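Example 3.2
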Amino acid sequence: MVTPRHLVLGLLVAVVWGVNFVVIDLGLRDTPPLVLVALRFALVAVPLVFFVPKPDAPWRVLAGIGLFMSAGQFGLLFTAMHLGLPAGLAAVVLQCQMIFTLVIGAVALRERPTPIQLVGALVAVAGLGVVAAGRLEGAAGAAAILPMLVCVAAGLSWGIGNVISRSAAGANGFGIVVWSALFVPVPVLALSLVLDGPAVVGDAFATIGWPTIVSVGYTAGFASLVGYTIWNMLLGKYPAALVAPFALLVPPVGLAAAALWLGEVPNTLELVGSAVLVAGVAAGQLRGLGERWFRRRPVAAPTLRG
């Protein structure tokens, strides 16, 4: 059983990661998305990289985690929200990573998904379809769907990062977060220079305001460092099947936080699709984690969630 103190900490992580999407939205009002990502992970890496020992993982694995799980996932997520995807829906749609993790793991690692995982993936796909239908309701097609597709691509990048992280199983999770962050700022900032132009990037740095400072401080300090310190501690004390449900609380917390602070109220189809998607993720993730635990396989390195 999870102790009351650890239960509170698990709920705290879910709240921190759910509110994270609202704080990202705040930063995007002041700074281009890729610049915001670069700033976030620069703060994650420096100065901690000088004090946290390098984890027992090859450089190529750290680079893969940094480029796919961090740069790719959050670069695309921030871009999707910049293009107009509401923060609450972003918290939900990003969970499609479970589908990609399942498929890529089956192809690359020859991991056979269980029947319940396959059913969960199909349910999650159906949920995405319902969310897409809700996005199209009363809106122009491309303007409504493009941000969602970009967020789905973020889920794909996260899924690739999840599979790469299997190679770092057993390594210090906090060290992986810090050291993999080294591979994020330079390529993301270079891409911003190409896509946004030097003038826009230069202006973003010259006019950094309080929204960016708050966003970067929260996403780096709370979502990445505090959140994962607690998450890794819980994974070290309890079976993964007991810890995973806390992560499933992130989408509803994100939806609630966006409704309270941003006034984002999803329509009926978006709410139904979100519920179906999260139910599919829960069916696949919880059963899969339980089976891995009881077979006493090592727990994979932690994944970034927000």
